[in-house]
Prior knowledge:
Helices cover 31% and strands 16% of the residues. The chain has 714 residues and is an alpha/beta fold. The protein is globular.
Amino acid sequence: MTDPVPTTCMRCAVGCGHLQIGVDTGYGVDSVRGDVSHPANRGLACQRGISESADPAGEWLTRPLVREDGDLHPTTWDVALDRVVEGLRSAAADDPDGVAVLGSGQQTNEAAYALGKLARGGLGTRYYDANTTLCMASAVTAYYDAFGSDAPPCTYDDIEEAETHVVWGANPAVAHPVMFRWIEERARADDGRLIVVDPVETRTAGVADDHVAPEPGTDLALARAVLARVVEREAVDEAFVAEATEGFDDLVASLPSVESAAATAGVDPAVVDDLADALRDPTLIYWGMGVNQSVQGTDTAAALIDLCLATGNMGPGTGPFSLTGQANSMGTRICSSKGSWPGQRPFDDPVERRLIAEAWDVPVERLPDDPGPGPVGTVEAIADGPVDAVYAVATNPVAGMPDAGAVRERLSEAFLVVQDAFRTETAEVADVVLPAATWGESSGTTTNMERRVSRVRPATDLPPDVRTDLDAITTIGERLAPGLFPASEPETVFEEFAALTAGTPADCSGISYGRLDEAGAVRWPAPDAVSEGGYRYLTDLGGWSFETPSGRARFSSAVDGALAEPTDADYPLTLTTAREADGYNTGVRSRGDVTDPAPLARAHPETLADAGLDPGSGEADSEGAEPEDATATLASRRGTIPVRPEADPAVPRGLVWLPIHHPRTNEVTLPETDPKSDEPNLKQCAVRLAARTPEEDAAGREPTAAEPEAVGDD
Length: 714
């Protein structure tokens, strides 16, 4: 048996170190376990990270495919690459915005950097997204607004020091099991407390000391109610506010009454009092997609940051801590040239633009003037112009984007290149499919949610007709823009990226492969070969210095607005979507080769009864329990899908819960976006639930012969 290979789990953004052993013969990973020497997890590992690395479900892509006469057929890399280059070059011939590029938080830092370099420096398109807009853009925007820089100030070290742990719009017991173990253990201490804010009684809420269940879509109203109570009770940390912040008076002037905001959120004012009291102790506020994926996502994230600022919950053991969704979402944020140039260099700064153009040896006028829209706006540009071709890498927009039926139609109209390890829903409508390496097969680095960069190493050789993302991207880039990639080895690409971050807020110039080999992982900012980032914005003298023009943190003053899509007589129920315990994003590693055409729909027994459905005799015992037959339909203004209803008292009356991992869930979700971050409102829309009729059985879209095994990764 081969020696264990130290690497990093790419399931979620905790960034656990793994030891992987390749198979004795052939290709693949034989076994996986936690790495006790890795500084992020110290040997802990979740079962899903292990099983999905060693034995993922889904249909592997092993050869390039091209579409001929309406069907995908195997071909050679030479033929596939010729088709890709010809299609992208033709689409960009008259307008660089003729090509859209979609990336993913499943790529290594090196591949994400190279894809952004290709999109921005090789093609010059503004229609590019690194996929973080689907999950983290609202948190990113709020961090910039408050601190002048992206990423949470906290680290994992602060979990042990905090006493109150407020988890808002997230379910880390399911989404980040290793991190949640630390949170739960600390909260169980005599001075510890866990509070969960979520409309649904999730697995995380089930072990909390307190569960607050606001009405869906009212998180901003609740957060501002708590802020108002903190101010009323004179519980503001006046010394911190005076020393380190600005805009507090404007915030206070904008606050609603506690009673009115609590009523909007559907909670008793006593609940607001309890939340305000809890913030008197050293507090970490964690949040996730339940906050970010909303038309008010940025404002809600900002209000949670405001709570930390107003109560002085800044510094070790305290602060705002967004929970990153995809494994390398943080890495794509600092290196991929989506919302900023590498290292968080401002996108619209002419000096920074010239610096990037010189480093890449491209004309400065080739670089786009703005970072462009998110994925929703990018796909809309296929129908409205100017996008004619799309290059999608390690992402599955046909399943992962809102109003997925429209997304499928628009992508079908474009020249579509899909690069993935598995045959996804998006691959099924592609013109060219490129088989890419996955976990255990690639070399590079990744960055976890607390800013730790660590190595990703292959434990097995690549199959003959499979290439790494970096190899494919640089090969295509060199053919489209000769000289763009003078080097394409992972270590050399990382060195190029790291050098570009020197002197920036996200400085990685002191990180090298050699240093990572010795240390296991290093947090940025790391401006030299020995320093490493800790709690951000604290100076050596104990003061505060933020990346804002004044050096002070900025309060927000956003006012609560209306729901993106209120319920009415035609659509009287509210839909929410979330993770299952055994699922990951759109399910490439968990759904298996055959996907049931109907997702599980969890709803309160009374909700099912009101819809004329049999509420059944039992309740769901956990997220992801085995569902019954598809006896109902769920309809929104975007479409109608079959569902398998399950009675679950953990879901409040009037709400329907669907898993994000199922390929049909997003056929009914809403494509409205946050006006500040462009992040879609994936968590709340109006729907109706009804018994499935024979006519609907006949009309409903069922998988084609090619579709049952089609799975994806977000």
